[in-house]
Amino acid sequence: MRCITYAGETVITTDDVAEVLVDLTAAIASAGRADAVGIPIVFEGTDEVGEAELVIGVGNDVLSVPVRWEGAEPDFSDAAAALRRHPLYPSEVDVVADTTFVDDPDMYWDPDLDGFDRR
Predict the structure, then answer these.
(1) Domain boundaries along the sequence of the chain
(2) What is the pLDDT of residues 12-41, one digit of tens each?
(3) What DSSP letter does each residue of 66-107 carry, written as one string?
């Protein structure tokens, strides 16, 4: 479980939701944007769950730290998957596409066209 600090407040969520939230926050900020998202949270000392609404991206810092948790962890995997579907969430395909041409420009050389094929 992780404790998320945001705007002077803290909430507790699962490791996977916290990881996705941090990655998504960085990606949205990198695009120069901000976006509102909701994450599932657990109220400390209880089994009650709720949702926190956050604006993430440019100008919005998110801190994720481990927290001691006793008992069963809730299953927030659906929420983590929903955050991963955000259009700006980084994917391995995006990273490969961004770095391949820089690392190996000959990869796009097309001998039939007598030059580069810039897709």
Answers:
(1) 2-114
(2) 999 999 999 999 999 999 999 999 999 999
(3) E----SPPP--HHHHHHHHTSTTS--HHHHHHHHHHHH-GGG
Distance from chain centroid for Cα 97: 19
Q: With beta carbons less than 8 A apart as the criterion, state whether 66 and 1 touch.
A: yes
pLDDT digits (tens, 9 = 90+) for 50-103: 999 999 999 888 999 999 988 888 999 999 999 999 999 998 655 444 554 556
- Cβ contacts of 15 within 8 Å, gap of 6 or more: 1, 2
CA-wise closest residue to 37 among 97, 79, 68, 70: 79
Whole-model pTM: value is 0.75
- 30-64 in b/e form (b: 16+ CB < 10 A) is eeeeebebebbbbeeeeeeeeebebebbeeeebeb
Distance, CA of 29 to CA of 42 (rounded, Å): 26
The two tokens of residue 58 are 């440019």
The span from the CA of 72 to the CA of 108, in Å, is 51
User: Measured in Å, how far apart are the chain's first and last C-alpha atoms?
Assistant: 43
